[in-house]
Amino acid sequence: MASERMLKLGVAAGAAGLMALSVAADLLSSTPEPRRIVLCGLLAVAPAALMWQCLRRLAPRAPRMETVHSRFTDDDTARPTAYSADARASVAHPPSTDTMLALEARLEHAPIALFRIDHAAGAGAVSPLNAAARRLLAPGRASAPQDLHQLLAAQPVGHRQLVSFDTERGAERALVAVSALAVQGASQRLAALMPVESELEAEALNAWRELVQVLTHEIMNSLTPVASLSRTACGLLDEAQANLPSDIHADLGTALDAIARRAASLVDFVGSYRSLCTVPQAEAQRVLLEELFDRLKALLEPQWQGKLTFSVEPASLEVMIDPGQLEQALINLLKNASEAGTQAQVRARLSRGGRLRIEVADNGPGVPEALAAHIFTPFFSTKKQGRGIGLAMVRHLVHANGGTVRHARSVGAGARFILTF
Predict the structure, then answer these.
(1) CATH number for the segment(s) 68-195
(2) Peptide bond before 314: cis, by omega within 30 degrees of 0?
(3) What is the 3 state secondary structure string of 206-255?
(4) Residue 161, helix vs strand vs coil
(5) In this protein, which residues make up the domain named Histidine kinase (predicted)?
(6) Domain 285-420 belongs to what topology?
């Protein structure tokens, strides 16, 4: 505002100077003297130049339009005619400053991470264009931003595909699409990256939950009458014992008892999987992790005999979470650790980006690399008597509280699981 006021004063001063010189020139015209008239003309140059400069700076500037020639494609189908018409319209009617600011604001707050790939600035120089892209490169997200840059620079134009990159929470999948364009004669690429790991994981969990619900319902419908009829048949066999030979009675008794036992075992087996479908809604509350770890230590100490340690850094670390569900997830992990090794550690700390990171590690043989991708899948187990529900339940409980769980490769022996919230 101050500069604008000064410019207006400059215009007024220039105008006043020109008016004064015009009056002087009019008075001199009655007795013309060439030297005085030339002097007045020279003196008029300064106020005229001042007034012109001030007026030029006060004049509103129309936003400069960049000439853009683009090859935007949608499902490999180019539409240059429609784009050329839009470009001609934008050149004929350039948008106002408010419109440009609104467009910049929408771009800045778009939920998709946008990156510019400039081949003129180097071998695929990648730079973020909006807040979502900058957050993706900030501490706590992509663990190797340079690798992500190389991944984007290597993507072909006009194709959508699923890519994977490493983050502080583990490998994350994202959908990427790249378009080519030329801005002021310079070739560039625009990459749109949408992380979909959470959505894919949620859909996978929902699919497994629905499948387990259908299977358990159908199996229970068949098992219930089998178990009931086998018990009834055992009672009828005892009543008819006097009318049957002893060897036939013994064989029938053994067969019916086996049927009853297997039916009861299957009912218990299927019932354990029903728990995946009946987990209550998480009720988050402020939890002091040191107190939660103290409760777990008191509960599990007799089993581990002093070989289970807990640590929290800092001791005042708190989290908004369902304490019962977090405890159950950690109990399941520690149960697996007790079956595999003799020592275990649970450590909680803040990772880069301010995220809570809980690590559960043991000294057992670890998870074979070929099986690591399947250990959270329901029904999958590496144990002979395992049901494949412990880690599936851990994943379900952690995801219900807005977190992720992954198996991390240990530096030494043993298995290591990382929970991130």
Answers:
(1) 3.30.450
(2) yes
(3) HHHHHHHHHHHHHHHHHHHHHHHHHHHHHHHHHHCHHHCCHHHHHHHHHH
(4) strand
(5) 214-421
(6) Heat Shock Protein 90 (3.30.565)
